Model the fold of this input.
Amino acid sequence: MKFFTADTHYFHADLLGDNDFAPRPFRTVTEMNEVMVTNWNRVVKDNDVVYNLGDIAMHPKYEAGYPEILALLTRLNGQIHFVKGNHDSRAFFKYLATHDPGHSKGKKFFFHDVGVIIKFDHHQYYLTHYPVLLGITKNIRNLHGHIHYSSIPIKENLNVGVDAPELSYLPEKQPFGMPISENQIGIIATAKAAELVKLRH
Done:
């Protein structure tokens, strides 16, 4: 199974509390991190693949915090593909690659500077950190993060971040930090397209 997430911002204390950009109702980053790890591992199994589309963590100690971030990421189930966000660096990716904890299938971590293209459910998916305006397309969707609690009013653009408004299209509330499965992507896409049609009439 494939899963998708973005804007995890582990260790980022400035996002705690109620705010319009990325509301995170936690008292501490430790509480936030633990909830996110728990909810990730509730659905992701060891043989699954997760695409984290950028802005993985923001540690207050910068490079000195890399070992703590690595320890957290190592606890997450599955193989993880990281797409570089504006708050990620090549030095960070290099550190993770050098200290890859390994996986039953080989490596645990994979890295992409710009994005990834994959296919499932009769669609081609552009996986990027930033929203990509595709123009008129047929069976192409863009999964992205970056804009947190905002949404692009185009049906092909789906925000899969942990604070994305698109999560409200799911029939049941998504626990905070739980990645979105490939099966849920279709549900979100259909519901968003229907809502945009209503807004135009």
